[in-house]
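Bumping with the actual sequence this time:
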Amino acid sequence: MKIFASRRSRVAWALGSVLSALGIAAFVLYSTGAYASWRDQRSLDSACDGTLAQGGLDAALNSSHQRARADDPDYLASCLVNRPDTGRHGGALTIRLRWSNQSATLATLAPLGQNANGVKGQAAPLGSGWPGVIRYDGTAQVVVALECQNAKDKALLAYGDLIRWPEDAKETGPVLTGLGRVTTETAQKAAAKYGCRAKGGTRLTHVSPPVPARDMVPQSLSTARGSCAALVGLAGRAAEAGTPDAVEYPADRDTPQVNCYLFTPDRKPGYGLYAYYGALAKDFQSSGFTEHADDYVWATAQCPGSAQDAVFVLYRLYDRETGSYPVAHYSGRFARSALKAFADHEAKLRGCTGVHVVSRP
């Protein structure tokens, strides 16, 4: 009996030692943050149905420590990524994925409803061969539209929104480039996961956001070389219509949105011209774009690689600061000729055909 008692004592002592060691190990993991780091990394690995690309996260949030959770169930996949110290220093973004043949949410359509409000509808091309744009007006959004080559009427859209700016970031460039990388690389990873054969671009190393309205410096339309180049031949008529100057964006054959603004002599945006392609053209038409302004003209064209017609539109712009139109008298004749030149030029760049200016009802 003494032998059995001795054995029980040794077993109990050994078990107690193991439990004590486990307790110490658990304490060490918690106290050093190792467990939290492991848990947060697992959340990133599984985020957005396992498609979240992590390469640009450090730059986008200005931190090497992030965590993620599921976000909006209305999307194919979505996730929110933030820093543990977001409450004190900011730094949070969302990624949302959807198919183009699914109804767009009000949140994704909202930016497309700003086109007649000064330059609120502006977006700049991402560049590097990506079919995407960046919007920036204090908050930042990157949109990528990957057309599925194995399904002509389908595209994968990715939206990256910086919902809390990292307040300790000293420069905007790395943050926006990081957001661009996370969005583009997540889109490419998701396309592969969901069976969408799509052409992306190369790794983003620099992203140039659109210039805020207050910092815009219009140049003579006659010198345009980018997104307004189509209107150089109409510079004289544009001046007669009250808009001799322009603000343009880099020419880019891959971007799904193009914009060109014509300015008055007192540096107010008077007319805005836009082109939309593929999935963004479909969303633009769904946004009720003809309800956004009283004075506009629009056109369509058929483009290769997409079942969706491209859409081109010109608006007379409204200035909410003054509650008036910088171009006092809308010239329908000039608007139609400017839009036709813009659409023809864009169509030629993209290999689109059948430009048709739509008659207003």
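The tokens above came from a reply further down the thread. The first strand starts at residue 67 and ends at 70.
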